[in-house]
Amino acid sequence: MKVFYCENCKHQVFFQNTVCQYCSTVLGFQLNMNCMGSFAKIDEQTWRSLNANDQNLYYRPCYNYSTYQACNWVIPADQDQIYCESCQLTHIIPDLSVENNLQYWRNIEAAKRYFLYLTKQLDIFPKPKKDEHDHLGLQFNFLMPYEDQPVITGHANGVITLNAREADIVMRVKTRLDMAENYRTLLGHFRHESGHYYFDLMQHFFPEWLEEFRQHFGDERQDYAQALEYYYEYGPPKDWSNSYVSRYACAHPWEDWAETWAHYLHMMDALDTAYHAGLKMQGQHAIDPDIHFKEPPLLSQDFELTLSNWFALTYILNGLNRSVGQEDAYPFTLSGIVLNKLHFIHRSLLDIHQRILANQNLPI
Q: Global pTM?
């Protein structure tokens, strides 16, 4: 993620901020300009931009920003839409009259915005789903489970359903430990389930893509329900880490893709943050890893260098965590087979980006 600054006082601000902590200037994220904008508040619904590149243009906060403080994105004042690009994707939210649900929803939306920020940088920001017959758009349903109405997090036909109870950190950590899922986070759920959504788009609009997909991930036409039943009964093979990024990736090629896709997004977001923060690392000995960027890591031409920087970054992240008595920030080992899968994902996204640059009318 980029580093953002307040236009009024020039201090650093962050993606989740609504006001500058130094000068109290009102802030809001502008998706079309990819920046945290700074604004002079004329009234509750009229904000004047203080940014150098759109100074004195007017914006208004998203409805969920001003009404529920569940968003921090803004909309150009000349647009009729009351919801920002992120909130337009949300279709169902928890019952806000129930205690804690408002905070759960806020936490979920914050994670969703982090996910969407990266999709914007990768040129794959999703469009809102128009109706049940729209196979291109995306819709989010955030549902609270009840005793007679369980909620299973998942994706189907452009609808991502999230069990809103996952926003309860105690419940999520317990589930993470029970299921041995090191990276079970709200953001991780968005990234994993989005993998299923983007798989559907890719295989539908670029059918030639499936041939290489099957070389890396296997034949997705095998029975999904049977594969999951077998996985939950017998678990992953003992040598699963030789070929998969996680245990659950063993269940079916669709899950292998979604788990690897989520892992790729984790890597790219962390590397992008390191790049924009100006992070560099010089090893003390010849065999020590170092970090040096020749280009932005997102959609990079030299993916081998990107991976090299990633391994160096995880080396220092894990070392720092151990220094303060915490578990490793990155408890994974990536085999050569997994690296090939990551290469495939990177090439697929780079191909989409290059088609967009060539002004091809793409469905995603």
A: 0.94
